[in-house]
Design goal:
The protein is mainly beta. It contains two helices and 45 strands. The protein has three domains: 111 residues, Sandwich (Jelly Rolls), CATH 2.60.120; 205 residues, 7 Propeller (Methylamine Dehydrogenase, Chain H); 106 residues, no CATH class.
Amino acid sequence: MRGERPRVIGHLLPEACATQARNCHFRHGVISPLREDLETSITLPITPRTLFHYRDDFWFTWPRRVDAIHSPVAQDQYGRVYFTDGQAPQVTSASIATRGQGRYPAASYRLGVPAPPSPPQIGEICYPEGEALNDPLDDETRFYVETYVTAYGEEGPPGPVSHEVTIPYPGSRVTLQLAALVAQNHNISRRRLYRSVTGGGVADYLLVAELDIAQTTYEDALPSAVLGGVLETYDYLMPPDNMVGLCLMANGIAAGFAGNEVLFSAAYLPYAWPNAYRQSTEHDIVAMAALGTSLVVTTQGYPYLFSGVSPGSMTSSKLPILQACSSADSLVEMDGFVLYASANGLVSVDHQGNARLATEGIIDPRQWRRQFRPETIRAWSVEGEYFAHYQDAQQRRAGFIFDPQAMDLRHTDSVFDCAARQLASDQYYIARQQRLYQLQQGTHPRAMYWCSKVFLAPANTAFSCLRVLSPQPLQVGIHLIIDDAIAFSLPPGTLTEPVVKLPPLTGRRWQIACYGTAQVDRLTLGTSMARLPA
């Protein structure tokens, strides 16, 4: 059995297809009702727009669209989560996210580390006692810079360079004045002081000291031979405030977008967003999703595919299919490809850049726009199927399911405010108001409806008997539709035998519909008992 293909006229459908299918599935080859949702013991503090599973029974909720990722850092001791909410990119961690009894995350920091706004100031220089006359050949010219470091160990870019200072005698002591940190929301706890060193024709900044953020003076008396590591965070810039769409690629690279610009982080460093890793698209970006080491970017025009093993080697391909993304919430990662809603149907893009209008053969663009209003679609991947919500012309919420393998559609009245997958159990959890449910995990089936294709027969054809195979026939109702009108019905509770003798009925266009809360294995019409197939 199969679902609907609205593009095809009813009598031209394949025999297994339906003209109507609601609250049912065909995973076992027969018509089965979807299950009700299972209510959990978890109560949410708000009616969320976005739901994210953090760990155990801790769920993050937001009243607006948010994109969140778990930390890609190996064995992250802080349990960090990074997210973009349309206001500014944020990061939270176990120490602050689950405090108290209110909405989680309870607190967060602005993602990224700013550069210090002012350079280190050169104070007093003390020369070693007992030095002979100055030898100009051993004079040392220095510059100092500093960086900020968060409590997570994230080091930001350097601030402005200090004035030049010349050290005439080895062993001299230089007093540095460092600017006090103004109020901030970056979790900055330390600062690192670097100074320039020249040797072998190469100049670089080496670590002098790591200081507490409250310390504003330091006396540098270190010889160059004992300085620490090289400054490596020159371009570890903060992501812009308007970056959204945060997602994580398989090689530890985080990606986001702002306007028509795609931004990539340094690998496994989702706080560092170098300008060199930015690329642009022709049209403004709507949404993006990662497929392994590739990134599918949907725009208000052509979709793009970005791929590469490092953020500095990303290549972009403008895909040859002009299908703009109608809704950011419609973009869903499936099994090896993504689906998103365009004005003409659902578009499929895989990791190799193969793009096509996936629903072209089952629903035409006018039907699609009239029935599903693609700009209102929100969707999720549930058991390999595209589970979507939309708002009809009367602003009522409804749902549909697209099966990319069977290439059919089904309707569902299962609607909710938002959903999130718990990866360990591969279960979807949904929020209705402030209650949390497991999607389709209840013990009771939903009331389903399935109506066959139109079977054309010679005029005034009469069928005399009907066979209904079901493990629970008393929970099944039957409609016999002849020439587009219900001619015979058996409500649930009346089907006590698998074979039913029909009253005298004739017509040219025949359909069988079943409804109820039980599985239906087979529906058969015959002109006589003897001619009913087994």
